[in-house]
Specification:
mainly beta, four-stranded antiparallel sheet, three-stranded antiparallel sheet, 11 strands, 10% helix, disordered N terminus
Length: 157
């Protein structure tokens, strides 16, 4: 009988053109499209919402998922709430003005909600603190800022 079950799902895309820092962390290359208000991760092929809503809208988990599902931005309709691992990919601790990559213009130095539950506690999900660039586990009923993503499929738990 298993008393604790931990499920982790990671998808890593290896490419010989990727740049890895001396600490072994992937250095992402981002490109901003000002007309569409999006930022593209050229390594992982993610597309990130970066309109004014990304620093103004705060929602709980279910409303955040619904918001992303209904979002139309840059002529795309297949947006979703990112996992905590996906939010971590836009953190840049070498950025002197913000912990978020400098291609992002609409950033609130606060908590952003993720779609990642803490599997050992049904009432807890993960948030990304964009003021310090660290993960925080908190009550799933809390509200936080929302930044949607499109790209690889969301993991279903």
């Amino acid at each position: 009988m298993l008393s604790d079950v931990f499920l982790m799902a990671h998808e890593i895309s290896l490419d010989s053109t990727l740049d890895v820092s001396p600490k072994g962390q992937l250095k992402h290359t981002f490109k901003r499209d000002d007309l569409k208000n999006i930022v593209i991760d050229l390594n992982l092929k993610y597309m990130w919402q970066d309109n004014i809503d990304a620093k103004q809208i705060r929602k709980g988990l279910n409303d955040a998922k619904d918001y992303c599902h209904k979002l139309t931005l840059g002529n795309f309709i297949d947006w979703r709430l990112p996992t905590i691992e996906e939010l971590e990919t836009i953190i840049d601790h070498s950025n002197l003005t913000s912990v978020v990559n400098s291609q992002f213009k609409n950033v609130k130095s606060d908590y952003y909600i993720s779609a990642s539950p803490l599997l050992s506690d049904i009432d807890t999900i993960s948030y990304m603190d964009f003021s310090q660039g660290i993960k925080y586990d908190g009550n799933r009923k809390g509200k936080a800022y929302v930044r949607c993503v499109r790209g690889k499929q969301e993991y279903k738990f």
